[in-house]
Amino acid sequence: MERALYIHIPFCVRKCLYCDFYSISDLSLQDDYIDALISEIKRIEDKKLKSIFIGGGTPTVLSKNSLEKLLRSLSKFQFTEFTVEANPGTLEKEKLIVLKEYGVNRLSIGLQAVQDKILKSLGRIHTFSDFLENYEMARKIGFNNINVDLMFDIPGQGMDDWKETLEKIAEIKPEHLSCYSLIIEEGTPFYELYNMGQLNIADENIDREMYHYSVNFLKSKGFVHYEISNFALPGYECIHNLTYWNEEEYYGVGASAHSFIDKFRYYNVDDVKKYIYLVYNDESKREKIFISKKDEMSEFILLGLRKIKGVSKEVFKKRFSDDVYNVFGQEISKLIEQGLLMDDGKNIFLTNRGLDIANQVFMRFI
Amino acid sequence: MPSDRQKKIRNFCIIAHIDHGKSTLADRLIEKTGTLTQREMEDQVLDTMELEKERGITIKAQAIRLVHTTEGGEEYILNLIDTPGHVDFNYEVSRSLAACEGALLVVDATQGIQAQTLANCYLALEHDLEIIPVINKIDLPSARPDEIKKEIEDVIGLDCSDAPLISAKVGLGIDDVLKAIVEKIPCPEGDEDAPLRALIFDSYYDSYKGVICYIRVKEGTIKKGMKIKLMASKKEYEVTEVGIFRPQYMEVPELKAGDVGYVCASIKNVRDARVGDTITEAEREAKEPLPGYRPAIPMVFSGFYPTDSAKYEELKEALEKLQLNDAALIFEPETSVALGFGFRCGFLGLLHMEIVQERLEREYNLDIVTTAPSVIYRITKTDGEVIELTNPTNMPSPTEIEFMEEPYVKATIITPSEYVGAVMDLCQNKRGIFKNMEYIETTRVMLHYEMPLNEIIYDFFDALKSRTKGYASLDYELIGYKESDLVKLDILLNGDPVDALSQIVPKERAYQRGRAICEKLKEIIPRQLFEIPIQAAIGSKIIARETVKALRKDVLAKCYGGDITRKKKLLEKQKEGKKRMKQIGTVEVPQEAFMAVLKVE
């Protein structure tokens, strides 16, 4: 089976207040970092990949030169989908042209909200009009598969703000939308503020109202709700991310990236300098853990249930030579009884109630 | 007349309020007399249990033999008996005191006399001990030794004119203490040839030696091979070893009247060699046992249940093992509809209970749900039968009850005078009956109250501390039973009564209590898949209600390739928390809920 490839660019102009991904704003290491990435990429022997995804951080913060150097190293692969993440304010015309030239066929733009006041409160570096400008430009250059990241349950964001965001974005017709409920992650400034009681988070009822509204609204606009937080026009589901949710194999290249290859999950160190050192010096120091069949089955279910259509009983059986009810029968029956899961004969999937409290379901499979 | 041998022995203990420096002084004495080398010294040498060191308290008595050489070159044997300091262990303290001729009364030079200082001091006076006041912590800038000396003279009536002024922490004045011990504490007396009478002041279980009895020989001699009899338990044994504390066990040929040491005699259970019992010779029995023996009486009862019901047998074994070394702990099997199979356990007091619970969790790795502690209620039924109730669940229906009584204590509280109002208010809230109040000095007051034991056992001490910025001190003793108007308050979760949450409350407080408990449970019980009504009821009448709303949102919005491991860990943690909860019907209840019902104001 073809694998996916993820490349992490841990640089940002500035870290957003809620973000817990590994990134730094000191760009001076980018040349050395790109060289290390390329050296790691060279070790991948696969010719054909399912997808490539350059994420971050902010990949488009790289200089045009660095970007080009990295893209060149990837031209040895065949692929179906090639996504690059971008942030408004870093997406100049020349960079877009370079991306296009090297076969990038999907953009994922982090917008979050259309109200500049909210963008500012999140610590974002751009305005809504910056986004629109970039978006138009990308369309003009020929990108015909664009994702926009949005966020709800942001402190200070009302239901009206969220509706406005969805409507304005629906108007410009992206092929794909991610709508995330803000998570207060440990180690972020938001986490500190939250603990000091200085973050005014709406209650769960409003969060769910926003979520349910998005689902209904986007469906009415022709989007398919295919993962807890993801929506796509038919045929535009993200191939790369489905790899994770299908518990299939992927390479992860760069600082803090993870790989899942031949029953092992590998962890790259989340420090640019250490990463660069380790790439050249001691590959064996890379942390890895064995994913047993039991782990794999459990991950298959808890990742698979993130998909709206759930897990296929047939795929489970083929992959693990065992019936899913043999392994998890008790858990599944109980959850069906509680109205959190449903079995339509082919697939087992979360009910609407299950989608709201999916952790309660996932937990049972660990 | 004391023999020449006895003239060179001094048996003493140290009494003090918590944190006044008892253990530190003991350490200095050990160090100064060279009993342990510097390398062997570690802080609080005598507190051997991990728990004792952590909490800074002494739970079990300890003894150590110090050899002190005076300036004149004479050698004295000083037997130091370290006693527990907490009111839960008052009886143990009294037995330790009975093993001594004198006591050092350590008083903090910054804080002065506290409730426990007084309580222990009176206990020592009752035993006719020679008391040497020692003023500690004189190195602190806020020390006021002269005032404290005057206070001791005024309140207790002890002459403090040549009381040693010391700092145990920095090692100041320790020689004066040693000198005072030798000069002031009387040497032991007692006929070495009379029939044996030895007082057991503590006993330990050791898996190799059996029970090790810590004894003070009052009369006669005890040696290996001797047939002995325990006068209270009436059991007979043959002595396998006698010895002294250096502080490790060191075998000696014999112990004679006046000596402090240990004896082993293949005794299988501490129950057979209880604290306070008298050892005599089987062949030549003493006419009378030493005075003051009484078996330990548990005052506080609580249900102990394994969180995982499969661990019932493990819990039983653990309790049995703890009991080997703790004659005061009692338990019997009990069943709860809500919690399954467990044990009703009896303790000397709350501290004793907490210690047992902590030891079960730490040393035996058991997760325990404990129900709210209860005192023993005495119920006189309409048919004249009198029953003692230790578990609220078993309370007969009100129509069968003629009247109910509950245990009362005499509480002594010492507080700076500015907090008198706050303390009185608290005591009032806890159904205290004011007895009297006296000024110890112009700025400090001693209050006497009679109070239901039930009100004291849980958070009274914490409440007292928080209302007086930590300055007040408390001591209490049981004075008997008084009639009270009491009712059983039941708690219902999701419509079903949870027996383990029932408690007995004064009738006039029932509404207020019911409301407070419902509110508290609402805070503690996490939201679940469905809405959970929490109700408080007396009989069939619902008196309060709260609702835990159904869980609305619990979902990780993002999960991609780099997240899986971390997100899985979060879920594992969440699941672990769930596991620690007790499933009652369809409701998951955190362990602390069962104790928290007592903590409400």
TrEMBL record, chain A:
InterPro entries given in the database record: Aldolase_TIM, Coproporphyrinogen-III_oxidase, Elp3/MiaA/NifB-like_rSAM, HemN_C, HemW-like, rSAM, rSAM_sf
Single GO cellular component term: cytoplasm
Main localisation: cytoplasm
Keyword DNA-binding among UniProt keywords: no
Pfam families: HemN_C, Radical_SAM
Location within or outside the cell: Cytoplasm
Domain Radical SAM core: from-to ranges: 1-224
GO-annotated molecular function: 4 iron, 4 sulfur cluster binding; coproporphyrinogen oxidase activity; metal ion binding
Cited PROSITE patterns: RADICAL_SAM
Function according to Swiss-Prot or TrEMBL: Probably acts as a heme chaperone, transferring heme to an unknown acceptor. Binds one molecule of heme per monomer, possibly covalently. Binds 1 [4Fe-4S] cluster. The cluster is coordinated with 3 cysteines and an exchangeable S-adenosyl-L-methionine.
Entry protein name: Heme chaperone HemW
Organism: Caloramator australicus RC3
The organism's taxonomic lineage, starting at the top: Bacteria, Bacillati, Bacillota, Clostridia, Eubacteriales
Automatic annotation (TrEMBL), chain B:
GO BP annotations listed: positive regulation of translation
Signal peptide limits: none
Matches recorded under InterPro entries: EF-4 (IPR006297), EFG_III/V (IPR035647), EFG_V-like (IPR000640), EFTu-like_2 (IPR004161), G_TR_CS (IPR031157), LepA_C_sf (IPR038363), LepA_CTD (IPR013842), LepA_IV (IPR035654)
GTP-binding among keywords: yes
GO cellular component: plasma membrane
Reaction catalysed by this enzyme: GTP + H2O = GDP + phosphate + H(+)
Key words of the record: Cell membrane, Elongation factor, GTP-binding, Hydrolase, Membrane, Nucleotide-binding, Protein biosynthesis
EC number, UniProt record: 3.6.5.n1
Name this polypeptide is given: Elongation factor 4
